[in-house]
Amino acid sequence: MTHDAEAPYKQLRRPLDDRLAAGVCSGVGRYFDIDPVLVRVAFALLAVITFGTALVAYPIMWFLMPEEPAPAPPVWRDPSDPTWGRPVS
User: Fold this and answer.
1) Residues 16-71: pLDDT tens digits?
2) Please, are residues 13 and 68 in contact by the beta-carbon 8 Å criterion?
3) What residue segments make up the domains of the chain, in order of their start?
4) Alpha helices (runs of H) in the chain, residue ranges in sequence order
5) How many angstroms from the chain centroid is the CA of residue 77?
6) In 3D, which of 26, 21, 4 has the Cα closest to residue 13?
7) pTM for the predicted model, two decimal places
8) What DSSP assignment string belongs to 10-30?
9) Which residues pair with 67 in a beta bridge?
10) What are phi and psi of 88, to 5 degrees?
11) Of 24, 25, 51, 58, which has the fewest beta carbons less than 10 angstroms from its beta carbon?
12) What span, in angstroms and rounded, lies between the C-alpha atoms of 41 and 44?
């Protein structure tokens, strides 16, 4: 079984880099290709309109949305390797 770097479909995940609290609004914004700030404003307005009831959705989504996988660490090469000075392809 092989794993591709890119999934064949969009995945709803919480990013590691663009988050204010848990990354839920940023993940939703990236999923729908809209600015995460607009999602945050819409969520805040929804919370006000529903008298705070919508605030229950945030921790539920935080629990259910997986986090993005961490980037792969850099490859460290052994200086005693005869190909050490050549660029990595």
Assistant:
1) 887 788 888 999 998 999 999 999 999 999 999 999 888 898 899 899 998 888 88
2) yes
3) 24-64
4) 24-31, 36-49, 57-64
5) 29
6) 26
7) 0.65
8) ----B-SSS-SSSSHHHHHHH
9) 14
10) -80, 135
11) 51
12) 5
For the record, the structure tokens of 23 come out as 């990354």
Token pair 């997986």 is found at 66
67 by DSSP, 3-state: which? strand
Provide the phi-psi class of 21: left if phi over 0, else alpha when psi is between -120 and 50, else beta.
alpha
DSSP 8-state class, residue 68:
P
Amino acid letter, 38: L
Residue position matching structure tokens 């770097």: 5
CA 47-25-28 angle, 5° bins: 115
